[in-house]
Amino acid sequence: MKKYPTDRIRNIALCSHGGAGKTSLAEAMLFDAGAIDRLGRVDEGTTTLDYDPEETKRKVSINIGVAPLEWKGHKVNLLDTPGYFDFVGEVKSALRVTDAVAILVDAVAGVEVGTELAWHFADEQSLPRMVVVNKMDRENADFFKALDELREVFGNHVVALQVPIGSQAGFQGAVDLIAMKAHLSAGGTQKKVDVTEVPPDLADLVQEMRDRLIEAAAEADDELTLKYLEGQPFTEAEVARGLAQGIASGKVSPVVCASGLKNIGVPLLLDAITAYLPSPADRGPAQGTHPRTGEAVSRKPADDQPFSALVFKTMADPYVGKLTLFKVMSGSLKSDSHAYNANKGRDERIGQLFAPKGKVQEPVAVVAAGDIAAVAKLQETATGDTLCEEANPAVYEPIKFPPPVYSMAIAPKAKGDEEKISSGLHRLMEEDPTFKAERNSATSQTIVSGMGDLHLDVVSDRLKRKFGVETSLETPRVPYRETIRSSAKKQGRHKKQTGGRGQFGDVWLELEPLEDSKDFEFVDKIFGGSVPLQYRPAVEKGVREILSEGVVAGYPVTGVKVTLYDGSYHPVDSSEMAFKIAAHLAFKGAFMEARPVLLEPIAAVEVTVPDQYMGDVIGDLNKKRGKILGMEPQGRSQVVRALVPLGEMFKYAIDLRSLTQGRGTYSMAVDHYEEVPAHLAQHVIEAAQKEKAGE
Ligand SMILES: Nc1nc2c(ncn2[C@@H]2O[C@H](COP(=O)(O)OP(=O)(O)OP(=O)(O)O)[C@@H](O)[C@H]2O)c(=O)[nH]1
Ligand SMILES: [Mg+2]
Fold first, then answer.
1. Which of 404, 408, 442, 531 is 20 to 30 A (C-alpha) from 492?
2. From the CB of 257, is ligand 1 less than 6 Å away?
3. Does 83 contact ligand 1 (Cβ within 6 A)?
């Protein structure tokens, strides 16, 4: 593919509610533009962009799919995003680098939760957008119902740019409201499009929709506004100019129609993308900071500027190694050169540059400002990093990813795979910023966290396929702790003096609760030499060993002050070991008499939900033993703050999604520990004893 100048590049992200047909539509666009020879299908696992085995197995997109196509002198980079919420991180990445968004709407379902979410994300990045009412061939498809819904939810700046010709099984194409021509697609693998006059039966409707479009376009441009108010007619070029300006400034969001699966209306969509959506040059300079001075840096997306690029995706592949996807924000980058990673302060060797087309990497010699490309085997560069010239450095705001909200414990099915699993998890974390894995020492489990059950299911599949380790996922253990509520004194006496060298250690310990959430304190109050100085460190060591092992249910002990105040010794048989054992006995004995209790972690939770779900959400939190701290309005939503035992929250991502039809979001962090209610503590202790007996 030849190098296109910046003003001839279009970066467009496809976003929607899950399954609105993004990947199928991208496939049709690539096919019609001649970028691919075969028109693949999602249901057959043959599309260009859902090539990953985890995607073909489930028939949903999981990763950003990137592919370029050439259309009438332009290069269009498609960024196909997943619709399922579990993979929202990919959407965030794509929207950070794209210059425009196409939001797809299913012509039967209309505006869905995921449509609103995509709209909201596009707002966050102030991105120009168009809407594609897709699946026009489906039974019950209704373009105008979808259009009305869009206008109702997002506002009257959403206007039709096309009027469909036929619908459902009879869907054939659309009238372009600017050129006032009918475009009839042959469909399927036939690329033929007949351009004809507007069908007479649509004339009135077309006129009405065109008037609306012109009114919207006129508002975007002062000169046109004046003309409009004076009642003068517009030329086709003027409408196009007003529309492009309106889209760029977010004042107009045009709506088109298509059927990706049947390949109808697709060339006209490509025409609209190249004619009316902004190029990287139109989007203006990127704002960053100088990594050393902290001064603001502004970089125009032009080849004559110093080079800078933002990394939006890193893929770990066991065969090719690491693949880094980036967008050139300014300047240009050549193959076989160098780039400076301004976040890490490191030089990176740049080998062959590629234009990714699904899983195929096409070599390119140079990447222009505004374009998207990939490079293999960078050493330190991670998603969100800025690559630039060392002499002219800049750092761009990294991509903001939502924190993981759903956790499970992961374990290898086969003994001995621990090493493989930990290196696999490490690699997966590198490629997915919404995925975390960490060892919980309190429960001796490896905890994986992500955006939902499907996300972690995919992680488990990847570990098997890429790293050859089979794993099982289960609900994590709660990291309980043990403490005491009163004081007790106890003797620990370890004596074995039959035959050979004997053992003798004898201590008296006093245990007291510690205030202020302090963990542990050891006080030596021996007067004289009842326990000789040389053995006292062994006593403390013995106590510390029990602290991590626990006494009641095997959980770490916290909040205990231990005083060694008496004991005795034997001049020959005493040893460090004997005193350690004596300390174990005294500590355990005293602990059991000092009203031991279990503590559980309490999470501070913040849930954001639309008003109508508030009651259900609060009811559910109460059922989870939560304490509601307060709520406050935020836009059309409510933010509920609560303290909830962590053990009740492991599956909250799923519960909240079903309670709010996916409209609720939340975040949480462990806040403090509290005593487990007695009846629940009993269960925990019994379970621990059973497990111990089973070992
Ligand atoms: N009738 C009809 N079905 C379609 C059309 N486009 C896609 N489909 C079907 O809808 C399902 C989802 O299509 P995809 O292209 O995977 O949708 P998507 O938006 O990429 O899905 P996610 O990436 O998982 O969010 C598949 O079964 C497609 O065959 C269309 O234009 N008409
Ligand atoms: Mg898809």
1. 442
2. no
3. yes
